Sequence to fold (171 residues):
Amino acid sequence: MDELMRVVMRIANQFETWSCHHVDFKEISDVWPYLLEDKFGEACIDVMSPTGLNAFDDSDCFWVAMRLGLPIIRDGKLPVPCDVIADNPMANSPFRKFRIQTVRNENEDGDVVPYTMDSEPFDENFGEPYFGLYGVFEDGILEHIADRKTYSEAVSLAKKLVPEINFPESG
Fold:
């Protein structure tokens, strides 16, 4: 039991240290210690089995932070998922909105799948995330327009198509 407690304490300290470098605490409305007390253990078990806790590392910190829905600093160092929708100001367009979403390809068959906060960020079955730009019809159906390596490149393309589009500067 003492060994398990040492592992748990190591993981908690590692997550706290990792979070100080990668979490935007200004965006958290919960009280940090209470948030961790209430949700951290369950999030850890969601991403790995209890028997795997000895191998917990920084990539697991990222995955746990995603599971907790923490506001991760978007500095290009981590593959943070993005799903942003902007209204289309052009009234005569068939697209009511535009959407930029992170996606990635399955390695086995190349299928494109959304990369979300529930995705395992470093899953070896998938390629690197990239950003898909989609037009959204009135009925919610998406039409793929293009893919870009970065969020800012996807926004730049959207602004070339619709100069008045209002996507946030960071996704």
Q: What stands out?
A: The longest strand covers residues 95-105. The CA atoms of residues 33 and 141 lie 41 Å apart. Strands lie at 83-87, 95-105, 112-114, 130-137, 142-148. Residues 83-161 form one domain.
